[in-house]
Specification:
With about 170 residues, this protein is an alpha+beta fold. It has one domain: Roll (Structural Genomics Hypothetical 15.5 Kd Protein In mrcA-pckA Intergenic Region, Chain A). Helix content is about 15%, strand content about 30%. The protein has an eight-stranded mixed beta sheet with strand order 5-4-3-6-7-1-2-8. A hairpin with a 6-residue loop joins strand 1 and strand 2. It is globular, with a radius of gyration of 20 Å. The model has no long low-confidence stretch (mean pLDDT about 85).
Length: about 170
């Protein structure tokens, strides 16, 4: 099965990445794919499962802390597959890539499909806007890549009825 994950950023409302990955991929594999696809340097990171309000729940860390016997202790990314999370009905993940500045991306499973034999997975299926700078959260991309503006351009030449009166 192929899972389509949509990744958003709270730093740039126009930033979107859709990833298509196999359900057997581990969280460590997803971490490596994200870092490679957005061009970040390797970094200490964690995934968190999240509820409907994006409240972090269980942590999955890059490093194996060896303390999984304690309730709520981080679990190593390499030990968990996306299929295990989806079966447990966890379809939202927070990917915290900057622990010091508390910066993160938000991922949600938006579709599950059969693999297309003509495509290689994992892959970036859709992208919009520049990636936020890995080290400078205040860096502003030169092009915001607004999806809203692109969609509204279609209506820019609309010739409405100048005689329209909305009063009855």
């Amino acid at each position: 099965m192929i899972l389509r994950l949509r990744m958003l950023s709270d730093e740039n409302d126009n930033f979107v990445r859709d990833f298509e990955v196999t359900h057997e991929m581990t969280l460590l594999g997803l971490h490596n794919f994200i870092i490679q696809s957005i061009g970040y340097d390797d970094c200490m990171a964690s995934f968190f499962t999240a509820d409907e309000q994006w409240t972090p729940l269980q942590e999955y860390s890059l490093m194996d802390m060896g303390e999984e016997s304690f309730e709520g202790a981080p679990i190593a990314m390499e030990k968990v597959t996306l299929a295990e999370l989806v079966v447990a009905e966890c379809n939202r993940l927070i990917y915290q890539f900057d622990m010091i500045a508390d910066r993160a991306y938000y991922l949600e499973v938006v579709a599950a499909t059969q693999p297309n034999l003509k495509l290689d997975y994992p892959r970036v299926a859709f992208e919009n806007a520049q990636v936020p700078d890995q080290y400078d959260p205040d860096a502003v991309p030169s092009d915001d890549g607004s999806i809203f503006d692109e969609m509204m351009d279609e209506f820019g030449d609309f010739d409405g009825d100048d005689n329209y009166d909305d009063e009855y």
